[in-house]
Amino acid sequence: MPFGQVVIGPPGSGKTTYCRAMHEFLTGLGRKITIVNLDPANDTLPYECAINMQSLITLEDVMEKLKLGPNGGLIYCMEFLEKNLDWLKELLEKHKDGYFLFDCPGQVELYTHHNSVRNIVEQIQKWDFRLVSVHLVDSHYCSDPSKFVSVLLTSLATMVQMELPHVNVLSKIDLVEKFGKLDFNLDFYTDVLDLQYMFGHLEGDPFFAKYRKLNEAIVGVVEDYSLVSFVPLNVEDKDSMREMIKAADRAIGYHWGEGEDRTLQAMMSSALGADYEYFKSAQVQERYMKEGGEEDNEEEMDDFPV
To answer: Taking the model in full, what pTM does it have?
Structure first.
């Protein structure tokens, strides 16, 4: 039974970079990796893919011939692939002994309410593939509470729509504070803790004041489902990649071979030397967030009732 990851998310979230890094990481562990590019707009690939949707259809051709914009063109391309799944099946069967990475387009509505990608993935599962959805969102959204609420709703809608085992990822976690210091410790965002605390940081936003009830309702929906959480990821950090692949493999029941685990231990020790045990247990909070953030957050939390 082939296993694989369906890598999805909004534009610029790092899907293609993730596929390249994950390919290198898993190849180093001894897995045979097959990358499938399902993005008809991605004509600059930093990896060698075994199957490329652009040999079937390209966004550029669709936009030119049908006079569609980029969003409408992407939807047309995915609907076209859905109608030509025999092409995909024939190519997948040539690589059934691999671990698959499906690099998907960066258009949110394809995963939140349009059905083509879901139907394609559902059919691939019928071909005896076991898949996990890896949903990447840019970690810098954590620095803006209103944007983080939007990210939560988008992530939840994607989980419900895709109907797959699912891992949400905060990508580029090393840049988490690039656009401002976080209001809370990182685990508040990764574990999606009591979201009511965020409202105190939105009081000065006139847009939020106008739509306060809507935001409260959205937060209520996210908390009622209690499904959304995130794995922080820096693709340049081998320890971070290790935790990511274990989360994805756990979701689909992929069992690590003994050789893979030994190879990982050797690779990590070689990369980090004597500091391996520290990096293995160190919190992402300590590595990527500014010193003093925890104390500031504790003071801010005191302003809210327990």
So the answer is: 0.85
